[in-house]
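Proteins fold reproducibly. Take a tokenised chain:

. . .
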Amino acid sequence: MSDERIGSRAGRHRAAVLGSPIDHSLSPALHRAAYRSLGLEWTYEPYDVDAKALPSFLAGLDATWAGLSLTMPLKQVVISLLDEVDPEAVQLASVNTVLPHPGGGWRGTNTDVYGMVESLSQAGLGSVPGTATILGAGATARSAIAALARLGCSQVAVCARRPEAVEGLSELAEQFGLSAQCSDLTPNAELIGADLIVSTLPGDAAAPWTELAGGARGALLDVSYHPWPTPLAAAWGGSVIASGRDMLLWQAVEQVRLMTGEEPSVAAMRQALPSDPAARPA
């Protein structure tokens, strides 16, 4: 068994999702379905933990814990509390998964990037997207940069309201080997004509782009999923469309693999998702 997948060692049978607020997280449904598919009598619970309470929560973990899922506002603040963090997660300033460290203590990684890549692949993205446009410049957009690099993209345009946020993402893109340009959120026919559009905006915030979406022929990853389809997805002219539900599913699949060392049933996990969830993507 790979050191990456150490959660299945004897005695480890607990996992959880942490964040604040956390009541509407879909992670418990996904992980519990995965455990059932594997025949594991594991527990997975949501805990409302904010940044102030996180150090004491981590300090209280024992050898029964196989891992943690993290959502906002913990993905960045956890980094300084861990014994090791994967280089990509450090670069993105985003850890969404905490695992036991082989030498003791805890290590952090990021499965959001995997979730983005796999959701697009499963949606039918067959060729390398040479050009991409990212709408929004928050934490999810940072993971999108790494996903684009994994997909082999060479050029990205970052569109957001705040110039300083756009510039920061542009610098990050260049660190990942992408040629980057900056733009505001004014709808632009050239930018929506990219091979891949990643919208990290709330569903209604991307609505101004819908007037151009019908002419789009590239792929779309819209990380918003409630309600679905979003206005942008409903108007999209391309044949490849992936949603935040897909991203959420696949990042959880990878978390289960890392925590248990086993391959869960993706079908069982997908079936555990409500059809139109009023829930946060965590």
In short: Residues 125-239 form a domain with the Rossmann fold fold (CATH 3.40.50.720). Residues 1-8, 277-281 have pLDDT under 50 and may be disordered. The radius of gyration is 19 Å. Residues 18 and 47 are 5 Å apart (CA to CA).
